[in-house]
């Protein structure tokens, strides 16, 4: 039966509608696929994911929970024990307040530019020190390995100092403090003071005999000190537990370990300012001696302090910044952390000399009391006439000014006989001029001062807990400088590597808890880090400025930060910093050559320190430490130069986005110098045929393309999309 015209028309209309629906559904399908892929990529951008070498599946890189956590981590790493016991000593030794000027100048010339450089490369490439320098120039990849070796050497003895602090912390819960008085020795007939303590002081005796039980030379091992062995084990357990999850575990601890020292320093400063003599100490500290400032040695020591205070070359700065978002303003971070470090050093200096001023005042009062007794005896015996003593002076209560007046009168009257009287001038400046640093400041001078504090156990607990936290903050950065590069490069489990690293370090570290262990700490401190770190940072500067190219690096910074850094950094990185670093290296080598290699040994019979030279095997160890630390640089260079390993096995350089997944495209970095983050041109990559390439921006992507849009010119290339003519859309 023939269809009437209305039915035919209806069927034709239905077919047209179905055709339109099919077309629309196809369009929706393609559009959904595109949107889905775009959405997944955007999510990856937010998460700041990265490519894992040797894997086809994207591995999400950990990230800091907040900017504050990251800043605290960098501050905790850079602000360490050196700020408390090294900077005040250098300030006193090198002209007081005049020392601050060369330090500040060198902070601007060396410190901030190089700190900014390390933050930049870590944040841009998002790898540890090995991956970063291998990425910029494979032939200089040994720089990263050298950083790891130096970090390991420093971690070995640095945690020993934390162990010492833990020991003193555990002994501080006593009243009176155990180092307050010299111990008494009993024999069959009578009781007497320990001779070694009587010849030195209670705090000195406690440090060398009770805490370290030190031997008389580095050649006398004396066996393990079990108390320090337990403390060293406890220190490594704390570090291991804090670092086992990387920044996810250590980052949370930073809130306490980085902030607590500031609370203690401020409390100490307020308390010390309320004590007699504290102002004398601060005045002595900041009285400028401008003539000393012109000496080359002052500038060399200021440059070295700037260099080590910021933790340059260790790899910890690079490791921490590698967990940042790529558009983070690392220039602001570099300036902020550097000045926090500087002002922390000044705060610590105020605290140290306020406390030492109080200690000097106490010692000066004892000196005046003892010498007044001698003067009274001399007056009674007729050696000194009563008539020369001013009538207003009452010997029962003599102020320091009155004593100095009497002393000067006696010195003038008894000009020839005066030396035989054995009187002391008791000047507070003489006590303040006794420069101490390092363990001598923390475990002897400062502990002695705290014994005179009211409620001394409380202040002792606070002080040594502060030292533990300062040490842990630096240790976290040091261990991160080892763990992150190895995990990034060799793809091992972070938890397993952390445990193995801490266990190995503890076993090797047993050499530092022998009775002669303190001498090995001195050896490692003098030779394992100074020259190797200088060479590492010089090579870092050369790699960026001359091998990679300072102009390209400045362009990369502009892309990453969204603004062009000041041209000041261009000239610093290219000209000034390399020259300053080379000068510092030469000066350090000359100083090391002129200074006889040796250590200060504690001689029990004399109850004093005596300088001893290292034995032959000790010199071999010193040289080996420096050679081993820098050896990876030439080894990796030779391997790369001679093509002893295959360098085309795929790397971070090139990736393709496929439905939200990141796929590796093997590529040899050797001949590619286009940018820090290399990438293939669009003709070499698979591309969907949407009439023309569709580009989307992603600041976190490690590929660069020639796309006309986007902040970094990055193209998202969607693989496996159905090929469609433009008309189908």
From TrEMBL:
Regions crossing the membrane: 70-88, 100-121, 142-169, 226-247, 259-282, 302-323, 335-356, 458-483, 495-513, 533-550, 571-594, 614-639
Keyword Iron belongs to the record: no
Highest taxon, organism lineage: Eukaryota
Residues that bind Na(+): 76, 79, 83, 341, 470, 474
PROSITE patterns: NA_NEUROTRAN_SYMP_1, NA_NEUROTRAN_SYMP_2, NA_NEUROTRAN_SYMP_3
Record-level GO cellular component terms: plasma membrane
Bilayer disposition of the protein: Multi-pass membrane protein
Record-level GO BP terms: L-leucine transport; neurotransmitter transport; proline transport
Keywords, ordered alphabetically: Amino-acid transport, Glycoprotein, Ion transport, Membrane, Metal-binding, Neurotransmitter transport, Phosphoprotein, Sodium, Sodium transport, Symport, Transmembrane, Transmembrane helix, Transport
Signal peptide span: none
Chaperone recorded as keyword: no
Principal place of residence: membrane
One Pfam family recorded for the sequence: SNF
Catalytic activity: L-glutamine(in) + Na(+)(in) = L-glutamine(out) + Na(+)(out); L-cysteine(in) + Na(+)(in) = L-cysteine(out) + Na(+)(out); L-serine(in) + Na(+)(in) = L-serine(out) + Na(+)(out); L-asparagine(in) + Na(+)(in) = L-asparagine(out) + Na(+)(out)
Cellular compartments annotated: Membrane
GO molecular function: branched-chain amino acid:sodium symporter activity; metal ion binding; neutral L-amino acid:sodium symporter activity; proline:sodium symporter activity
Similarity-based family: Belongs to the sodium:neurotransmitter symporter (SNF) (TC 2.A.22) family. SLC6A15 subfamily.
Name used for this protein in its record: Transporter
Organism: Physeter macrocephalus (Sperm whale)
């Amino acid at each position: 039966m023939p269809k009437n015209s209305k039915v035919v028309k209806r069927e034709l209309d239905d077919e047209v509608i179905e055709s339109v629906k099919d077309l629309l559904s196809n369009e929706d399908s393609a559009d959904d696929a595109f949107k889905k892929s775009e959405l997944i990529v955007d999510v990856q951008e937010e998460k700041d994911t990265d490519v894992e070498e040797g894997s086809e599946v994207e591995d999400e890189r950990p990230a800091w929970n907040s900017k504050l956590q990251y800043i605290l981590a960098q501050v905790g790493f850079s602000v360490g024990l050196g700020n408390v016991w090294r900077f005040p000593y250098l300030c006193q030794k090198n002209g007081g307040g005049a020392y601050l000027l060369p330090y500040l100048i060198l902070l601007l010339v060396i410190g901030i530019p190089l700190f900014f450089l390390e933050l930049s490369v870590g944040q841009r490439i998002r790898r540890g020190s090995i991956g970063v320098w291998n990425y910029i120039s494979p032939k200089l990849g040994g720089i990263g390995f050298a950083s790891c070796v130096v970090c390991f050497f420093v971690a070995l003895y640095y945690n020993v100092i934390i162990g010492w602090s833990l020991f003193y912390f555990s002994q501080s819960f006593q009243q009176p403090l155990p180092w307050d008085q010299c111990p008494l020795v009993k024999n069959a007939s009578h009781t007497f003071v320990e001779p070694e303590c009587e010849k030195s002081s209670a705090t000195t005796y406690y440090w060398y005999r009770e805490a370290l039980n030190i031997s008389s030379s580095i050649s006398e091992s004396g066996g393990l000190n079990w108390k320090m062995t337990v403390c060293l084990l406890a220190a490594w357990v704390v570090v291991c537990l804090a670092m086992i999850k990387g920044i996810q575990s250590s980052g949370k601890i930073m809130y306490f370990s980085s902030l607590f020292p500031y609370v203690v320093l401020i409390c100490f400063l307020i308390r010390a300012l309320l004590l007699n003599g504290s102002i004398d100490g601060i005045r002595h500290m900041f009285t400028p001696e401008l003539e000393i400032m012109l000496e080359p040695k002052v500038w060399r020591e200021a440059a070295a302090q700037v260099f080590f205070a910021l933790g340059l070359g260790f790899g910890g700065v690079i490791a921490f910044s590698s967990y940042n978002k790529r558009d983070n303003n690392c220039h602001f971070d570099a300036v902020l952390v550097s000045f926090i470090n500087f002002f922390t050093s000044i705060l610590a200096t105020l605290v140290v000399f306020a406390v030492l001023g109080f200690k000097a005042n106490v010692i000066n009062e004892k000196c005046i009391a003892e010498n007044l007794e001698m003067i009274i005896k001399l007056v009674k015996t007729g050696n000194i006439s009563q008539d020369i003593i001013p009538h207003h002076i009452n010997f029962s209560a003599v102020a320091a000014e009155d004593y100095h007046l009497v002393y000067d009168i006696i010195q003038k009257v008894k000009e020839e006989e005066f030396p035989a009287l054995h009187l002391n001038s008791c000047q507070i400046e003489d006590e303040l001029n006794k420069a101490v640093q390092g363990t001598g400041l923390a475990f002897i001078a400062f502990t002695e001062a705290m014994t005179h504090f009211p409620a001394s156990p409380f202040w002792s607990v606070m002080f040594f807990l502060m030292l533990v936290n300062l040490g842990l903050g630096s240790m976290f950065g040091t261990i991160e400088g080892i763990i992150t590069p190895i995990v990034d490069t060799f793809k091992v489990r972070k938890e397993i590597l952390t445990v193995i690293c801490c266990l190995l370090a503890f076993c090797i570290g047993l050499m530092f808890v022998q009775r002669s262990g303190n001498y090995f700490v001195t050896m490692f401190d003098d030779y394992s880090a100074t020259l190797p770190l200088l060479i590492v940072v010089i090579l870092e500067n050369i790699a960026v400025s001359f091998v990679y190219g300072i102009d390209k690096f400045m362009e990369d910074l502009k892309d990453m930060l969204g603004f062009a850094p000041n041209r000041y950094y261009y000239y610093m990185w290219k000209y000034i910093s390399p020259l300053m670093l080379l000068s510092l290296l030469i000066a350090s080598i000359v100083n090391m050559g002129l200074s006889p290699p040796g250590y200060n040994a504690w001689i029990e019979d004399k109850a004093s320190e005596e300088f001893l030279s290292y034995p032959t095997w000790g010199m071999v160890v010193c040289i080996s430490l420096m050679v081993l630390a820098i050896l990876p640089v030439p080894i990796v260079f030779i391997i790369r130069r001679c093509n002893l390993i295959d360098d085309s096995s795929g790397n971070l350089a090139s990736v393709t986005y496929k439905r939200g997944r990141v796929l590796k495209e093997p590529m040899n970095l050797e001949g590619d110098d286009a940018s820090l983050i290399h990438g293939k041109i669009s003709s070499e990559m698979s591309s969907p045929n949407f009439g023309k390439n569709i580009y989307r921006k992603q600041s976190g992507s490690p590929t660069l393309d020639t796309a006309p849009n986007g902040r970094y010119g990055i193209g998202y290339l969607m693989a496996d999309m159905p090929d469609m003519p433009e008309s189908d859309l």
